[in-house]
Amino acid sequence: MGYKDIKHKTCPEDEGDGILLVDVETEMIPKRDKNGHKQYYCLEGHHTFSEDEDGTDGQHDRRKKR
Ligand SMILES: [Zn+2]
To answer: Which among 51, 19, 18 is positioned nearest to 34, based on CA atoms?
Structure first.
């Protein structure tokens, strides 16, 4: 019930089916690149690609404060 949350995204390079990569330890938290974009694995071309946020670059300065 809402537990499965496998996210798919179309690969921008070959329009293959990309699946969300998650951290192997938690299996829940998405892997992110240095820019904070979620990582996907393309099943078509067998490569990874990053989530491409359109139009929102440079505005979100989210720094974690503890
Ligand atoms: Zn691809």
So the answer is: 51
